[in-house]
Amino acid sequence: MIKVAIIVLADTETHEDIARVHNALLAAKEFKDVNDDFKLIFDGAGTKWIKELSKPDHMFHELFDSLKGKSTGVCSFCAGAFGIKESAMESSIPLMGEYEEHPSFRKLISQGYQIITF
User: Fold this and answer.
1) Is the overall model pTM greater than 0.70, yes or no?
2) Domain range 3-117, CATH class
3) How far from the centroid of its chain's Cα atoms is residue 39's Cα?
4) Which of 26, 32, 90, 100 is the most buried (most CB within 10 A)?
5) Domain coordinates of the chain in residue numbers?
6) Which pLDDT band holds residue 62 (cuts at 50, 70, 90)?
């Protein structure tokens, strides 16, 4: 079975950023559709996408909503730094802070996950 962690680092400010988050969501959907083990993690400036994608009128809201669950998470430290902790909790996106309040990429790699960044 394939194990992949998709990391969203893209900010929310440019057309390129929108394309990158869309590609990340589509990649996660592809892995989910065939029951691969995937994680979708929002980190750095990418944490701001939680608030944007949670808006019902956002063009990618439905896609984002279909991916939420135990496989989706957000960096605890960055969620605080970018002011979206409340949005993450309202959206039921778990905060990840295994290594100094950040997701542990070492742990993911040690568990056999391949890392893809957007």
Assistant:
1) yes
2) alpha beta
3) 8
4) 32
5) 3-117
6) very high
